[in-house]
Amino acid sequence: MKEQPRLSEMIKNAAFDGFLLVRASSQRTASNGSKYLDMTLTDISGDVNAKMWDGQTNPPPVGKVIRLRGVMQEYNGRAQLRIDKMRESNEDDDIDMQKLIPCAPRPSDEMLDEILNRADAIRDKELKALVLMRLEEAGERLTYAPAAVKLHHAERSGLLHHTSTMLKGAHMISQLYPFLDADLLAAGVILHDLCKIDEMKSDELGMASDYTREGNLLGHLVLGVSELARCAKEIGVRKELVTMLQHMILSHHDLPEYGSPKPPMFPEAEALHTLDVLDARMNEMQTELAKVSPGAFTERIWSLDRKLYRREESISE
């Protein structure tokens, strides 16, 4: 994907030649009876209204990436992109999705391989079989699923990003506290948010538009416990192990107001909760601080209930 201007940086009469993501698209009729396309197009920096005064072109599907040429104009004081030519993207196009939508910083196959390799290294045969079964059932959706509609890891492959980072933290914590069952903790990390793929409506671009019926009525904690019980019964896993894993899923939010009916009641469950909170907050802080200049404060962040400060200088090496 060649270099292209960001929408937020374009000025009036500037030419655009590149790729954008379709957020909304429809064919409309002008007052003179002619048809035209009215679209909302976006990249990582923001979105813009776009018009194509060609009644013969069908509106591209929402969620598709299109290649276009056009000119930035203004209408009623707002930016508007006039499209002269466009087509849907194809497999031969070299598209860098990180320039169009929020994406995890690492390739999805790399993160998935790390998770699968850790699951395959679990020594307990029943625990290993259970974790691998759940990963297999998640299938392709896991490669692009975000970890949230908003807030932390709301990005393409965000669930893999969150899980793989937590696994690294779990490895270090298990070395620091060797009395922990490292395999149980790793299994909890892999399983704790896995049912987010059923909780949210997410397309192949990793964009979550809303929650599913099951997500609204049950949530990923209850779904996770239910799916775990089903798989454990199918392959035959001892009851205590299943119950402990279910508790880890149910308790990883810690408090009733955050959805957990029980607090963590054994060390691996507590470690899972701590890792989850740490990774979520670090991701949110990194995202919000990137939006302000050094030496400035962010706006008050609802999920953290505070402002954040971005330091002016980094520590010298």
Characterization of the model:
This protein is α+β, with helices and mostly antiparallel strands and 317 residues long. It has two domains: 7-96, OB fold (Dihydrolipoamide Acetyltransferase, E2P) (Beta Barrel), CATH 2.40.50; 102-289, Hypothetical protein af1432 (Orthogonal Bundle). The chain contains ten helices and seven strands. The strands form two sheets. The chain has a five-stranded mixed beta barrel with strand order 1-2-3-5-4. Strands 6-7 form a two-stranded antiparallel ribbon. Helix 1 (108-120) packs across helix 4 (158-176), helix 5 crosses helix 9 and helix 9 (239-251) runs parallel beside helix 10 (267-289). It is elongated. The two termini are 35 Å apart.
Topology:
Elements: E1 15-29, E2 35-43, E3 46-52, E4 65-75, E5 78-88, H1 108-120, H2 125-138, H3 141-144, H4 158-176, H5 182-192, H6 196-199, E6 200-202, E7 208-211, H7 213-217, H8 219-235, H9 239-251, H10 267-289
Parallel strand pairs: 3-5
Antiparallel strand pairs: 1-2, 1-4, 2-3, 4-5, 6-7
Helix pairs in contact: 1-4, 2-5, 2-8, 4-5, 4-10, 5-9, 5-10, 8-9, 9-10
